[in-house]
């Protein structure tokens, strides 16, 4: 059981290092980070969250099912909010993104929201 948590921590550290390197490179050339950097950051969040949740989610009981259901419920409303904000910002020309960048940002926000809400709900229940 400890070995599986260590694997998640190793993956999270790996994704954090890569995304940190990409952010540092973007800062050095004075530009915005590549949109795939956000996906790597969300994978790091997912890995660290799974390392915390693994001992609890290995048991298939009512509590873990309820945590997953509530996390998906909260993240569905947050996705609607994220999509509204990105669409409004694009419509009023507040930000200038290509379609693939907007999709990468939305996917990264969703991955992070789901797993952070699972951690918060696991601590609450």
TrEMBL record:
<keyword id="KW-1133">Transmembrane helix</keyword>
<keyword id="KW-0472">Membrane</keyword>
<feature type="transmembrane region" description="Helical">
    <location>
        <begin position="71"/>
        <end position="90"/>
    </location>
</feature>
<feature type="transmembrane region" description="Helical">
    <location>
        <begin position="39"/>
        <end position="59"/>
    </location>
</feature>
<feature type="transmembrane region" description="Helical">
    <location>
        <begin position="7"/>
        <end position="27"/>
    </location>
</feature>
<keyword id="KW-0812">Transmembrane</keyword>
<feature type="transmembrane region" description="Helical">
    <location>
        <begin position="102"/>
        <end position="122"/>
    </location>
</feature>
<protein>
    <submittedName>
        <fullName>Permease</fullName>
    </submittedName>
</protein>
